[in-house]
């Protein structure tokens, strides 16, 4: 069971309090009606689903009710960081491959 | 309490023929009676069921799974493969598959063996096992029982009957289980020498420590050890350490508590058995078992090692045992499980068993050492006691059926790969074997860490740590008491350093370390015949897996160790291969000409030992399985005899039957009352979300499909919500309370989802909109009065709300006082009648409800439930999201295009989705009404509709009936259906072929059956 | 191929079982094949078998990074049924169901398919309504399905609590009596043995690390044992499909999640059917060995670790004890996890891809086992003809653009 640091509450809490919400940093197209069916389908359904470092969104549903982001390894389940909505990750697959974190 | 034990035999006392007069950690002053297979026996406090059975000379405790061979107790702990018992004195307290070696004896314990017919001693199945055994190599069932096809399930019935161990009780569990959460700095798993030293070190450093051990007392191997520590007998030393640990406030000592699972992020579960050693059923007010859920900063695994048995022919005959188990029974329980012992060993450690046997005053026939020239302190001691030593040899076969009669001893070559010379039969009744030690790496495996083979210690050790995990002692191959104690200190010191605590003073006690010679790696004892022809050489006793079976599996192409495991079922038993797996993997490697390191190992999964379902469920079963939500008027509904419907977590009144009324009668009465006069519905369960902030209005514009820019204060509007795919997922009325203040209502079941949906979009996409959401569902009671007399009724209870039809219009709301209580009254309608939804603070809900009834009697105010609500809304063609929609329906499919804004500047959620190629097809399923040609018929909800019921199967389907009720107001059934292209097929006939064979004809019509102009609500 | 039978067993017993043949060879990969199948699980092996058997294409390699049948095939709860709601899905799963019936004989390998009945419990009026909808749809699609009332359920499943005291009392159930369970490993091994006998190369311990393509056309696969050429490649890698698609340069509408399962210790027969409850979130059957086989809900986060979270197990066992209070004292032996690739509509993808000649069969989510023969059968036809089999057509990736989704969340059984 994951142990998750909520960046808003500033505490590590049990996974029980949270809900995983899938891939993070998916922006809604600014002009939906200008999108083709393909572009709209890509936005709604097609995902990175990486094996390894992943940026995903979580919801502190039984806590502060805030959505936030997490950088997590989908194989080891190690959590590298959590960060607030609107912020960018400081750990990425590239930064880890490059030896920086 | 009925008792399963036989009364007849209760008086017969069987002597404890194998019990020593002295020694052991048992209390001879406290005899305990217990029954096994209907016979009464006596043991002592401190016994396990296994030690007590051995004390009483019980050889056969069960029959094997596949071949029905007689089996005896083999080990003394969690690794026991054979002694699997059915426990329980009453039906409700039956427990299947209890390991006798782990069950503490208590007075009145009732046990039975799980296999064997008529009994375990004389099992008729064994004749089949003997005769058919040759026909049952691994995987035989894949190769037969196929013809004829129709016979498989008959074969299977007999296979199922023969399989399985114990049985589930037929009655419900009377006991309760609970859970406890912990956080700690250091969790020490295992309270043997390494674990105790680790816990002591961490405790002295001031760390918050939990130390857990599966046994009833701390000490692990020290409880049966001949060693001294710091000049004290080992068990005395343990007592001192435990006493010190108990003094620390931040140290939690858990005995009878197995750390059974090691999960991500250092989360571990500990299964504590609180009462299984006391009685069958937990004492009053005490939970039977408890799951401790621990989040540990550091974990120190001090789980020790299990002794590995040797694999030789007929090594399953009762009387074959693990060497260390024999020592345990002698030293800890004062039980010698036989008279004449042959010990076979590959190492020095097991010599202790022969010494213990001899000192117990019984005969050691010989020590058969597989090594050519064993030397060392223990060997010298054995020699001094005059024990015969046969080096360079092995017991290759066993004589005896229900008990060992003799050990067939031959010399073997230096690598143990073949028999070199002729045999000697050693007459004996017990054969103890030791092939060395297998570290208990199970928990580290749970974290995904693959164990690594270590040639030096001849065993797998934990792989690289995936968590903040340390190892101490035998679990990672550190042997020798002094080294183990030191290793415990070292592990704790590492944790202490990482925790940034001060290192405490810990002095290592003195120990005696005998000089030992190297052990021999031997996983298979050769026979004069090749493995395929030798008598059965068991690797996994519980699943009857033999060396020959493993060799056959590899010969048939099962070369991955996982394939071998699955094809032979090795390690699939309740012991999960604790004894057999390493030997089995080694035999697989050997037959393929590979090394063990190359072949690798299978992965152990949780649980380390089995865990009661009830303990995992804890209190979250029965009436606490899921929250029940009640409205403020619930008590009233119950008193009126309402039947309830589960809607989400809510208990909603379904209908209010009067004496003698059927549901149909009640619903007809309620439905008519509303249309004729006035009815009342408890609508408190509808989700309510208070929305405030300057961005609220714009937010609603984006989240709803329709426009909200112009909704004035005091007005209400119905809205549809879609996901980005354009499919409807919720609906409800939202009212404007103030310029920047709205109250949204949602469906009962959808409230939490809508709340999350609002937060999601606000927090992730539109944080620039200043808007706040508060769930207020529970804050308000909603009392809906509906019917032509509802205005009159309400007028009697309010003086400050002007109910004039022209000032307080349909889709308006007003604040004021109702029955002396502040209220918001919404003139909205889900019945098509003149309706008022009265919202008051929840704690006034019942008061106002009762006041309404005081005044409503003269209007025949009738409470109605969800069923009548459905009838009334269906008469009007109002939809229920989730019933008339299923996630594949757009607003246009619902013929609700009027609720989709055409000129909204912001592209609202769902707008783009509902315009995709497939969503604008002509032939989509559309919501229409259905009227049966025979007006007395009510279509069943869920019926599928077709154009041609005579079409051969598969019949092309048009859609299905989503809602259908008998309308007492119209005198016929009313139904709604989603039908392909339905909106352009008005007047067409469709057919519903039902599962009972009837075919119902219906006509597609408007879904508004009653008052199509909406005049009734505009009065 | 050596034929298996009871007589054969007796004969081999006389020669101490020393003369059994290998069930499959361990071949060195050729440089080139007509078709390469990536993934040696049940679906991949079935694809290879039907390619050889029904389409005469035998120059085929199945490339497996681990051991045959070692992924979800080895980890599922072995339920077989075809009671899906929508026509497209119902026809596909029913095609599979028909292949199950007779599969042991076809393969000459006892896969132990046992029609012990699959019950879906209804606990609310909504469940009953959806049950009726499903049963009626199934019947019109030629798939027998029945609706039982509460008393019938209580009679047919004595261990189940059908009392009013349950938190969500049982109100009825649908039952597909032809549904049941099969022995999961045997399915993989049976197809493997059958495919091998027809000439298919089963190449284990070999990982595909890339797809070689030129101008958008597939040329073969890069593996840990070098390049292997083929004009047609079918990728059947379940939980790993997203990773394979990434290697081929496109994305899929999939997310890979842990799905856990657990078994009790073996006990004497107490449950002779499969019981599923979407509302209480638990499902259970009893294996021939006596274990209660229990499926947990899916874990919400993406995960390739073959592990899930403990709270999922807790919720599952709460549900089981709630449904079957007599199981409370039974003990859980082992738990494990698989990696399931879930689609937004809980239906699979059997589809051409942006790379010509490269086809994917994935997205089976939580319910792939039951489809094993059918999936292999239609995918084999798809690869042989290089165009979608009629039953596979609705499961093209295009549906995620057009909007023609086939929403089977209700029928899929496990809460997504």
Account of the 3D structure:
- The complex is a heterotrimer of chains A (101), B (1019) and C (416).
- By secondary structure, chain A is of the alpha+beta class.
- Chain A has one domain: Folate-binding fold (2-Layer Sandwich).
- Chain A contains two helices and six strands.
- In chain A, the strands form two sheets. A four-stranded antiparallel sheet of chain A has the order 3-4-5-6, with no helix packed on it.
- Chain B has 1019 residues and is α+β, with helices and mostly antiparallel strands.
- In chain B, the strands form 13 sheets. In chain B, strands 8, 9, 12, 13, 14, 15 and 28 form a seven-stranded mixed sheet that branches.
- Chain C has two domains: 28-76 and 182-252 and 343-410, FAD/NAD(P)-binding domain (3-Layer(bba) Sandwich); 112-179 and 254-339, D-Amino Acid Oxidase, Chain A, domain 2 (2-Layer Sandwich), CATH 3.30.9.10.
- In chain C, helix 2 (42-55) packs across helix 10 and helix 3 crosses helix 10.
- In chain C, 70% of the residues are buried.
- The interface between A and C is medium-sized, with 29 and 26 residues.
Please give a quick description of this structure.
The complex is a heterotrimer of chains A (101), B (1019) and C (416). Chain A has helices spanning 37-45, 93-97; strands at 3-6, 11-14, 19-23, 53-59, 67-73, 79-84.
pLDDT average of chain A, as an integer? 95
**Spans of at least 5 consecutive residues with low confidence of chain A:** none
The CATH topology of chain A, please?
Folate-binding fold
* CATH fold call of the largest domain in chain C: FAD/NAD(P)-binding domain
Under the CATH scheme, which class of chain A? Alpha Beta
Strand fraction band of chain C? 15-25%
Order of helices and strands of chain A: EEEHEEEH
Annotated CATH homologous superfamily of the largest domain in chain C: FAD/NAD(P)-binding domain
User: How many runs of DSSP E, i.e. beta strands of chain C?
Assistant: 19
Structural class based on helices, strands and sheet pairing of chain A? alpha+beta
Major β-sheet annotation of chain C: 8 strands, mixed
Portion of residues in helices of chain C? 25-40%
Structural class of chain C: alpha/beta
Under CATH, the homologous superfamily of chain A reads: Folate-binding superfamily
Q: What is the count of DSSP helices of chain C, taking H or I runs of 4+ residues?
A: 12
Uncertain segments of chain C: none
- Write down the domain tally of chain C: 2
CATH first level of the largest domain in chain C: Alpha Beta
Biggest interface found: B-C, 107 and 117 residues
CATH architecture of chain A: 2-Layer Sandwich
């Amino acid at each position: 069971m994951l142990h998750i640091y909520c960046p808003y509450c500033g505490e590590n809490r049990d996974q029980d309090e949270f809900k995983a919400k899938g891939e993070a940093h998916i922006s809604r197209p600014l002009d939906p009606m200008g999108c083709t069916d393909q572009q709209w389908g890509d936005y709604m359904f097609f995902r990175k689903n990486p094996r390894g470092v992943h940026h995903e969104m979580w919801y502190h549903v039984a806590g502060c009710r805030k959505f936030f982001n997490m950088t997590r390894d989908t194989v080891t389940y190690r959590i590298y960081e959590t960060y607030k909505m609107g912020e960018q990750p400081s750990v990425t697959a590239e930064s880890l491959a490059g030896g920086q974190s | 309490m009925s008792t399963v034990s036989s009364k007849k035999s209760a008086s017969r006392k069987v002597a404890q023929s194998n019990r020593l007069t002295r020694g052991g950690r048992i209390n001879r002053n406290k005899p305990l009676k217990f029954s096994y297979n209907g016979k009464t026996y006596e043991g002592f406090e401190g016994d396990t069921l296994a030690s007590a059975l051995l004390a009483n000379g019980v050889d056969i405790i069960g029959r094997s799974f596949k071949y029905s061979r007689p089996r005896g107790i083999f080990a003394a702990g969690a690794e026991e493969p054979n002694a699997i018992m059915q426990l329980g004195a009453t039906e409700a307290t039956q427990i299947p598959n209890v390991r006798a070696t782990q069950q503490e004896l208590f007075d009145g314990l009732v046990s039975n063996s799980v296999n064997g017919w008529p009994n375990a001693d004389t099992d008729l199945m064994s004749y089949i096992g003997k005769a058919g055994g040759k026909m049952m190599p691994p995987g035989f069932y894949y190769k037969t029982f196929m013809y004829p096809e129709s016979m498989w399930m008959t074969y299977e019935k007999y296979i199922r009957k023969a399989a399985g161990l114990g049985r589930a009780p037929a009655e419900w569990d009377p006991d309760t289980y609970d859970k406890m959460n912990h956080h700690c700095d250091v969790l020490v798993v295992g309270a043997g020498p390494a674990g105790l030293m680790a816990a002591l070190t961490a405790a002295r450093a001031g760390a918050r420590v939990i130390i857990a051990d599966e046994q009833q007392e701390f000490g692990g191997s020290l409880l049966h050890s001949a060693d001294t520590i710091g000049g004290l007998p080992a068990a005395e030393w343990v007592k001192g350490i435990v006493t010190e640990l108990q003094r620390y406030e931040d140290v939690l000592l858990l005995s009878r508590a197995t750390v059974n699972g090691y999960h991500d992020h250092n989360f571990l579960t500990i299964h504590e058995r609180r009462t299984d050693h006391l009685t069958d059923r937990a004492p009053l007010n005490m939970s039977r078992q408890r799951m401790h859920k621990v989040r540990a900063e550091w974990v120190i695994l001090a789980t020790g090692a299990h002794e590995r048995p040797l694999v030789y022919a007929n090594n399953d005959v009762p009387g074959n045992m693990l060497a260390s188990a024999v020592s345990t029974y002698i030293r800890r329980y004062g039980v010698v499980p036989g008279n004449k012992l042959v010990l076979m060993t590959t190492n020095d450690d097991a010599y202790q068993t022969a010494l213990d046997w001899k000192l117990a005053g019984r005969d050691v026939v010989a020590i058969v050492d597989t090594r050519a020239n064993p030397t060392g302190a223990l060997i010298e001691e054995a020699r001094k006691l005059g024990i015969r030593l046969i080096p360079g040899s092995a017991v290759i076969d066993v004589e005896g059926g229900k008990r060992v009669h003799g050990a067939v001893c031959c010399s073997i070559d230096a690598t143990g790969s073949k028999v070199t010379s002729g045999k000697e039969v050693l007459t004996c009744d017990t054969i103890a074997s030791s092939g060395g030690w297998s570290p208990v790496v199970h928990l580290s495996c749970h974290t995904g860490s693959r164990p690594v083979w270590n040639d030096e210690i001849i065993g797998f050790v934990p792989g690289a740590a995936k968590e903040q995990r340390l190892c101490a002692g035998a679990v990672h191959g550190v042997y020798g008491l002094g080294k183990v104690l030191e290793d415990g200190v070292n592990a704790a010191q590492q944790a202490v350093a990482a925790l940034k605590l001060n290192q405490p003073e810990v002095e290592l006690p003195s120990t005696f370390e005998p000089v030992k010679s190297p052990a021999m790696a031997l996983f298979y004892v050769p026979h004069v015949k090749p493995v395929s022809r030798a008598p059965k050489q068991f690797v996994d006793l519980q699943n009857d897996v033999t060396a020959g079976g493993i060799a056959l599996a590899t010969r048939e192409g099962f070369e991955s160790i996982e394939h071998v495991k699955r094809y032979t079922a090795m390690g699939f038993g309740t012991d999960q291969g604790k004894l057999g797996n390493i030997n089995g993997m080694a035999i697989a490697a050997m037959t393929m000409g590979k090394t063990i390191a190359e072949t690798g190992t299978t992965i152990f999964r949780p649980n380390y030992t089995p865990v009661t379902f009830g303990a995992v469920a804890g209190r979250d079963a029965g009436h606490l399985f899921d929250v029940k939500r009640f409205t403020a008027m619930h008590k009233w509904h119950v008193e009126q005899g309402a039947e309830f419907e589960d809607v989400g977590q809510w208990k909603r009144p379904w209908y209010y039957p009067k004496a003698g009324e059927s549901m149909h009668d009640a619903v007809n009465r309620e439905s008519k009352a509303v249309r004729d006069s006035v009815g009342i519905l408890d609508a408190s369960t509808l989700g309510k979300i208070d929305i405030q902030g300057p961005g609220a209005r714009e937010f609603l514009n984006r989240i709803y499909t329709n426009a909200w820019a112009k909704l004035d204060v005091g007005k209400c509007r119905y809205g549809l919500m879609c996901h980005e795919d354009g499919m409807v997922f919720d609906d409800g009325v939202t009212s404007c309370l103030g310029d920047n203040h709205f109250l949204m209502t949602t469906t009962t079941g959808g409230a939490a989802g809508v709340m999350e949906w609002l937060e999601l979009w606000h927090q992730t996409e539109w944080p620039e909109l200043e808007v706040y959401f508060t769930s207020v569902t529970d804050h308000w009671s909603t009392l809906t009065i509906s019917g032509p007399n509802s205005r009159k009724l309400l007028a009697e209870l309010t003086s400050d709300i002007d109910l004039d039809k022209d000032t307080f219009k349909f889709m308006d709301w007003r604040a004021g006082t109702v029955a002396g209580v502040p209220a918001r009254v919404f003139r909205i309608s889900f019945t098509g009648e003149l309706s008022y939804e009265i919202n008051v603070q929840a704690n006034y809900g019942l008061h106002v409800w009762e006041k309404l009834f005081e005044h409503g009697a003269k209007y025949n105010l009738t409470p109605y439930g969800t069923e009548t609500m459905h009838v009334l809304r269906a008469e009007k063609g109002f939809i229920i999201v989730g019933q008339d929609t299923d996630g594949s329906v757009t607003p246009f499919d619902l013929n609700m295009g009027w609720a989709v804004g055409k000129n909204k500047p912001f592209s609202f959620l769902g707008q783009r989705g509902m315009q995709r190629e497939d969503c604008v097809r002509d032939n989509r399923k559309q919501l229409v009404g259905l009227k049966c040609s025979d007006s007395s018929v009510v279509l069943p909800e869920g019926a599928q509709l077709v154009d041609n019921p005579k079409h051969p199967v598969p019949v092309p389907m048009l859609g299905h009936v989503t809602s259908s009720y008998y309308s007492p107001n119209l005198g016929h059934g009313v139904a709604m259906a989603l039908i392909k292209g339905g909106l352009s097929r008005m007047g067409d006939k469709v057919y519903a072929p039902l599962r009972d064979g009837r075919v119902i004809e219906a006509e597609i019509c408007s879904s508004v059956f009653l008052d199509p102009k909406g005049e009734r609500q505009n009065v | 191929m050596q034929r298996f039978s009871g007589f054969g067993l007796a004969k081999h017993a006389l020669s101490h079982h020393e003369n059994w043949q290998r069930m499959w060879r361990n071949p060195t990969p050729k440089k080139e094949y007509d078709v390469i199948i990536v993934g040696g699980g049940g679906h991949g092996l079935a694809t290879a078998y039907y390619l050889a058997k029904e389409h005469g294409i035998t120059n085929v390699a199945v490339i497996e990074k681990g051991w045959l049948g070692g992924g979800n095939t080895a980890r599922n709860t072995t339920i077989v049924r075809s009671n899906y709601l929508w026509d497209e899905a119902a026809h596909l799963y029913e095609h599979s169901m028909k292949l199950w019936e007779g599969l042991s004989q076809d393969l000459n390998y006892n896969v132990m398919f046992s029609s012990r009945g699959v019950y879906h419990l209804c606990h609310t009026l909504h469940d009953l309504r959806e049950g009726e909808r499903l049963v009626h749809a199934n019947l019109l699609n030629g798939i027998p399905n029945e609706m039982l009332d509460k008393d019938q359920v209580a009679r047919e499943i004595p261990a189940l609590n059908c009392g009013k005291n349950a938190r969500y009392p049982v109100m009825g159930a649908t039952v597909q009596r032809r549904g049941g369970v099969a022995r999961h490993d045997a399915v993989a091994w049976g197809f493997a043995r059958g495919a091998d006998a027809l000439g298919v190369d089963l190449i284990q311990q070999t990982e595909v690390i890339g797809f070689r393509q030129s101008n958008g056309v597939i040329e073969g696969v890069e593996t840990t044992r070098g390049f292997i050429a083929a004009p047609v490649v079918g990728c059947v890698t379940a939980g790993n499909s997203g990773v394979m698609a990434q290697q081929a340069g496109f994305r899929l509408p999939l997310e890979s999640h842990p799905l856990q399962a657990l078994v009790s210790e073996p006990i004497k027969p107490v449950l002779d059917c499969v019981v599923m409850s979407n509302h209480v979130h638990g499902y259970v059957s009893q294996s021939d060995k006596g274990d209660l086989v229990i499926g947990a809900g899916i874990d919400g986060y993406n995960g390739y670790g073959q592990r899930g979270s403990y709270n999922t197990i807790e919720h599952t066992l709460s549900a089981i004890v709630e449904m079957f209070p007599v199981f409370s004292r039974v003990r859980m032996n082992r738990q494990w996890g698989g990696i399931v690739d879930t689609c937004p509509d809980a239906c699979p993808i059997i589809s051409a891809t942006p790379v010509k000649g490269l086809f994917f069969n994935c997205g089976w989510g939580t319910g792939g086992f039951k489809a094993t023969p059918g999936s292999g059968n239609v995918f084999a036809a798809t690869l042989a003809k290089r165009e979608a089999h009629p039953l596979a057509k609705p499961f093209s990736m295009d549906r995620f653009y057009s909007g023609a989704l086939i929403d089977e969340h209700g029928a899929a059984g496990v809460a997504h």
